[in-house]
Amino acid sequence: MAAAAIHCGKAKPFPKMLDGKISLVLLLLLLAAANAAPSSIVGNLRFREAPQFYNSNGCPPPINPSTEYSSSCPSSLVDVAMTLDVAYLRGSMAAINSILQHSSCPQSIYFHFLASSFTIFLNSTISSIFPSLPFIIHPFDDSLVAGRISTSIRAALDRPLNYARSYLPRLLPTCVNRVVYLDSDLILVDDITALAATPIPFPAALAAPEYCNANFTAYFTPTFWANPSLSVSFEGRRACYFNTGVMVMDLERWREEGYTERIEEWMDLQKRMRIYELGSLPPFLLVFAGRIAAVDHRWNQHGLGGDNFRGLCRDLHPGPVSLLHWSGKGKPWSRLDAGRPCPLDALWAPYDLLQPAFPIDVDS
Ligand SMILES: *[C@@H]1O[C@H](CO)[C@@H](O)[C@H](O)[C@H]1NC(C)=O
Ligand SMILES: *[C@@H]1O[C@H](CO)[C@@H](O)[C@H](O)[C@H]1NC(C)=O
Fold this sequence. Notes:
There is one protein chain. The protein is of the alpha/beta class. The chain has one domain (71-351): Spore Coat Polysaccharide Biosynthesis Protein SpsA, Chain A, CATH 3.90.550. It contains twelve helices and 15 strands. It has helices at 89-101, 119-129, 143-146, 168-171, 192-196, 222-226, 228-231, 251-257, 259-272, 281-288, 332-337, 345-348, and strands at residues 3-7, 10-14, 27-29, 41-44, 78-83, 109-115, 135-139, 178-182, 186-188, 206-208, 210-211, 241-242, 246-250, 293-294, 323-325. The strands form five sheets. Strands 7-6-5-8-13-10-14 form a seven-stranded mixed sheet. The protein has a two-stranded antiparallel sheet with strand order 1-2. Helix 9 crosses helix 10 (281-288). The longest helix has 14 residues, at 259-272. It is globular and about 55 Å long. The two termini are 34 Å apart.
């Protein structure tokens, strides 16, 4: 299995595994999105191979990971979609690891990754870490959305890939009717099959945990609320906040209703007048709030990354936990590396597949 190294934007072949472990020397370019100079070398990442997890009795037969995705879909029990980029790779790998570990039919989960750069490297990295994972990488063209993005309060929210979730119904093969979209900064501690089976009664196209106690007004600017032709769009629905990091999507209904285009229209308006401050969330609220199917709150214990400015430690919301989500500025891997973890970061650590790093000297 060939791994690859990236250095200064060029992918080239890299010698294979050492002692059955994967040696990925990743001279990682953190892009502008991560608030770093484009050429800064941040780390030397080596991942280990994840354990293999097997289907239990009563599961469908495992998906053959080498099946080519053509006109028909592999017979998956659950389809999962995630974005994939170099900056959040460690988070994504931990998330996949957690999904497989807590599923009773891990070999029947099909992964759809959206990536806009370093696709060959990401492809070989996943194959090395999860040698029998059934997955496909769908290329995401940043320019599809780049011209529609307005700057928000946090640079990481403005990465084009952050908007890729709105395009899943276009990017995924039409034989996929339902997908579970997941962010990269989360782990599951429960069987994803239960989340994927969430009923989405007609006419909803989306299911997510709703938070009706959150102050909905705060997600839009006074300009928005002061303009009746805009605020009327929430009339007649009980609009509640939901987090777009965990969503079950009915792709067929979404395609029929043209929701991607409706999201784009709001983003285009935001370019002309500032109607919200956050990134990809508000257009979702504009199109879907009050029109989604509810999911139990256990499936998105979000906010563990703290707020968007300082990333302070946060506690769990009351109630059971099936999914922990480090939304907000602080990420468990960076806080652990910095030696200043929050108490709940200890729950993320067991899913981390990074090998202890060999620091490289970097002139800074
Ligand atoms: C990933 O690698 C496989 C072979 O291992 C290849 O068939 C597939 O086309 C690659 N995907 C991308 C997006 O490069
Ligand atoms: C909700 O947010 C708006 C705008 O930030 C604020 O003016 C209002 O006082 C808040 N309402 C409550 C109940 O906190």
